[in-house]
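Appendix B, Record 12. Input sequence as logged:
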Amino acid sequence: MNTPAFAPLTGPIGFYPVVPDAAWVKRLLGWGVRTIQLRIKAADHTPAEISAEVQAAIEAGRSIKGAQVFINDHWKLALDFGAYGVHLGQEDLDTANLDALRKGGVRLGLSTHTPAELARAHAVQPSYLAIGPVYPTTLKVMPYEPVGLEQLRDWALRASPYPVVAIGGISLDRIAGVMACGVNGVAVVSAVTLAADPQEAALHGLRLAAPSRA
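Logged structural output:
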């Protein structure tokens, strides 16, 4: 029996900031960013705080036409609060209730780091696939070698027909080269939140990762 596919995205991905709280989600939506991921470190927050942040981020996304707000990891809360989407790692595939997420119309983004993980993700039929780390990253210890642009181009082809998000060590000055590899979006973790002028960084990122009209 074929596994049913997750709901498709409703808009282009393009510039895709990953942020630590709902305040950043609201800020970015106000600046015109339409695809955003809320990634909360559970160790730094109580369950009540996490629940409030997830709910606030989802409600902020609902209030903006065309917004695609994804919740990282906290899929149960995302489902309860009617999230647009969730983003999961490979290890989450063993524990998340994928059927419930599908039936709830929640979009799914999946992280992949190797060809084997790419193949496993294909079987789930997600809404998009993330490939990384493209470059070395200092934000967290990664057990994977950087993919690099040449492999990214190859793996992006293998990911078809799913949209591809590149992630990992991507600064604003690297976005154009990454987008040239045929991906549909570029996720950034610190390029906005740690920028001297976050709004200008976000607007610049939007321009650099604008979907091709070709």
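The chain has one domain: 14-208.
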